[in-house]
Design brief:
The complex is a heterodimer of chains A (about 300) and B (about 280).
Chain A: H1 15-44, E1 47-48, E2 58-59, H2 63-70, H3 72-103, H4 112-124, H5 127-138, H6 144-153, H7 164-192, H8 196-204, H9 209-238, H10 241-246, H11 258-267, H12 272-306
Antiparallel strand pairs in A: 1-2
Chain B: H1 3-31, H2 36-39, H3 53-59, H4 62-96, H5 101-113, H6 116-130, H7 136-160, H8 164-172, H9 177-185, H10 190-206, H11 209-214, H12 222-227, E1 231-232, E2 235-236, H13 238-258, H14 263-267
Antiparallel strand pairs in B: 1-2
The chains are: A mainly alpha (about 300), B mainly alpha (about 280).
Chain lengths: ~300, ~280
């Protein structure tokens, strides 16, 4: 082939140029929708900017950050979020692993596909839709759950979401209902990674069940399980739609997770400067978790290729 | 106990678990076929004469149609844009191993892991400043960005699985680079494209915060309608909410019935491959 006689549009681009051209659209999206807002947010976090006042932003240096660090409420809401994450992910993991074991290898279950569709249905629902509808389920007057509690235990139908001591637990229970299926899914996948030959060998050798778990199943299943727990942790930390539709943070501040605090700071108080500072703070926590997730993912890849 | 009886018992238990998790959804679906007073009836009615009243009542709302059309149009167009853009980028990441590929993949995933509430503030200010609030391109392109990380991750995984020898063989037969990309590699990663399409559509379909803040009346979707509350003179309009949620949720159930094997890859943003 003679490059000199080819018209310019038929000529091959040099490979690095071609490779970069393919990435340009994604980079463009990335710059416009991530870098620009991020820089905007970082810049704004040094300003006092109340949107409704119609006043120009005032430079205040690090004041927003020092205010956040000293704000008792922010720490209380972060604490509440941590409590929520630990509670939700803990229960979901335990329940999910136990039930996942029950579903393990049940390929002959009659109507398996339908059963799994029903089982996995909660996690594809919109959190907002779930939150809205669970408000009716929990309603002290018309709700089905307080009614059955009243029937079963003979106590007056409780106002689960309206009571500061039960509101967080009720939201947590809803989250557990929504996301335990996810942990079941991850457990089934994790157990599927255990080579069948090793399981059969351990059965032939009459290895005790705890030893089988420790030496045969765990080494192969751990990665997917850990990834599942991390993913749930990241997701639970983000919880917004569910709780905003169910309680909007109330009663009082009983279910005020950090994402709701952030939202309120920005769109109830319209103080964009301090909301940006808080957002950076939350962003940092989220990126830290994502790094752990990717670290485990890469570690797994290396180990798999080493095998 | 006979092994066969034991197996049957276990299967019965599994079905029981599945139905237990479905029960609240079932309760919601039943409500769509009840009259307004039946929905709020105490003791709860599990058995009743179904009525179309709720669904026809919903269909008579002008707003329902506009929300439904917005939901469909916005989620489908955003995801299609995202997949086209992601496919070419994933091909490049997979084949040419540019410098910074790993870093880009990390950054992309972290975008997806960040709490929406943390990003919505600058997005809102940017959209206000640029006048993109309440416009279709504004919201569609935002959701396209929202769908890109997952699409790149899943498609890169699938393209990595296609041997580069296909590319080399086709190129030595004189195929152009674009031909290799779209005619040789693309058909082999169709499952990845299907999975990316389905799960991104579900995520966008369910997202409400951004549409609520950077959208507006014109581009409001069904979740926004649900979140902003639907009231009549007697309080919350549960009949409308029940029918709306039913119509809105049923497609999702159908999708996970037919595309169950993509559920794992879908729910882990493309980072864990495998089937259930």
């Amino acid at each position: 082939m003679q490059p000199s006689v080819m018209p310019w549009w038929r000529r091959r681009l040099p490979q690095p140029l071609f490779a970069w051209l393919l990435v340009v659209p994604v980079l463009a999206f990335f710059v416009i929708w991530n870098i620009v807002p991020l820089l905007w947010m970082i810049g704004l976090s040094f300003y006092r900017y109340i949107l409704t006042f119609g006043v120009n932003p005032v430079y205040v240096g690090l004041q927003n950050f020092s205010q956040i660090l000293q704000d008792y409420n922010v720490w209380a809401h972060i604490g509440l979020t941590v409590l929520f994450v630990i509670g939700a992910v803990g229960v979901e993991t335990i329940l999910g692993v136990l039930l996942g074991f029950a579903f393990w290898g049940q390929t002959a279950l009659p109507g398996r596909r339908l059963a799994l569709t029903l089982l996995f249905s909660p996690m594809v629902l919109a959190p907002v839709a779930v939150g809205t509808f669970f408000r009716l389920i929990y309603d002290p007057m018309y709700g089905i759950l307080p009614y059955y509690i009243h029937q079963l235990f003979g106590i007056p139908a409780p106002n689960l979401l309206g009571n500061g001591s039960t509101a967080l637990l009720s939201v947590l229970a809803t989250d557990v209902w929504m996301w335990t299926p996810f942990m079941i899914l991850m457990t089934i996948a994790a157990l599927g990674a255990v080579p069948r030959a090793m399981l059969e060998a351990s059965a032939v050798d009459r290895l005790s069940i705890p030893r089988r778990l420790r030496y045969v199943i765990w080494p192969h299943a751990k990665f997917i399980l850990i990834l599942g727990v991390l993913l749930r942790t990241i997701d639970a930390f983000k919880t917004f739609g569910l709780v905003s539709a169910m309680t909007a943070g109330g009663p009082g501040n009983a279910t005020q997770l950090i994402s709701l605090t952030l939202y309120r700071e920005a769109f109830d108080s319209f103080s964009m400067g301090s909301a940006s500072a808080l957002a950076l703070f939350v962003l940092f926590i989220a990126i830290a978790f994502t790094s752990i997730y990717l670290f485990v993912l890469n570690y797994q890849k290396r180990e798999v290729t080493a095998e | 106990m006979k092994p066969k009886v034991k197996a049957r018992l276990q299967q019965g238990f599994l079905w029981l678990v599945a139905v237990a998790f479905f029960l609240p959804v079932l309760w919601l679906f039943l409500a769509a076929f009840k009259t307004a007073s039946q929905i709020l009836a105490i003791p709860p009615r599990w058995i009743f004469r179904p009525t179309w009243q709720g669904l026809t009542y919903m269909a008579s709302h002008q707003a329902f149609w506009s929300h439904a059309v917005n939901s469909v149009v916005i989620s489908l167009s955003a995801v299609v844009i995202a997949i086209v853009v992601s496919f070419v980028a994933a091909y490049s990441f997979s084949r040419f191993r540019l410098r910074g590929t790993n870093f880009m993949m990390f950054v992309l995933l972290s975008i997806r892991m960040v709490p929406g509430a943390a990003v919505v503030v600058p997005m809102y200010l940017m959209y206000t400043a640029l006048g993109w609030i309440n416009s279709y391109p504004g919201i569609i392109l935002f959701y396209a960005m929202f769908s890109i990380p997952f699409s790149v991750w899943i498609l890169k995984g699938f393209i990595d699985g296609v041997s580069p020898r296909f590319d080399e063989a086709a190129q030595s037969d004189g195929a152009s680079r674009l031909h290799v990309m779209f005619r040789i590699v693309l058909p082999q990663v169709l499952p990845g494209i299907v999975a990316a399409f389905i799960f991104n559509t579900i995520f966008v379909w369910n997202e409400f915060l951004f549409d609520f803040i950077i959208g507006g009346n014109q581009v409001a979707t069904i979740p926004v309608a649900l979140a902003s509350g639907l009231y009549t003179s007697q309080g919350i309009d549960w009949q409308y909410i029940a029918s709306l949620t039913f119509v809105y949720t049923l497609p999702l159930m159908v999708v996970i019935y037919f595309f169950q094997k993509y559920l794992l890859v879908g729910m882990t943003f493309g980072t864990v491959r495998g089937e259930v």
